Amino acid sequence: MRETWHQISGTPFVLKGVCRVDDALRAVDAGVAGISVSNHGGNNRDGRPAAIRMVRPIAQAVGDQVDVVMDGGVRRGSDVVKALALGARAVLIGRAYLRGLAANGQADVENVLDILNGGIDSALRGLTIRRSGVSPPTTC
Asked: How many CB atoms lie within 10 A of CB 115?
């Protein structure tokens, strides 16, 4: 599937929904370019661990071979800082800005991103860390 995807799209294959180290290792062996640590918002299966709890062990196991990103459970800027501190290379955010989009369109999406950005700055200040080389939240 990875080879077919790359032939069709010309882009790397990133696997979403990885919550276990053994699955991450298998994904790397299969040739994925990246792993998204996610429990699909808890909507797919009950009892799966929160993504934030699995970022560190997965990043420690495969982070030197592929990009590991976290997806799910991000509600505030401090969640972004925690995920990055635990080894994620990036954090994916969906629900927060989608709620803003539903409420008031682009203006509220920008407001949500401003709030997240402020939360990131606040969390970093609390840790006495200056933001450098950390990009503010953006949409693709």
From this structure: 15
> What CA–CA distance (Å, rounded) separates 118 from 94?
18
Assess whether 40 carries a catalytic annotation. Answer: yes
Structural domains for the chain: 1-93 (3.20.20.70)
Is residue 44 very low, low, confident or very high in pLDDT (cuts 50, 70, 90)? low
- What residue ranges in 3-140 does DSSP mark as E strands? 14-18, 34-38, 67-71, 90-92
Percentage of the chain modeled with pLDDT above 90: 60
Name the nearest CA neighbour of 35 among 109, 108, 92, 107.
Answer: 92
- Residue of 40, 48, 53, 76 marked active site: 40
Output the pTM of the full model: 0.82
Q: How many CA atoms lie within 13 A of 25 on its CB side?
A: 6
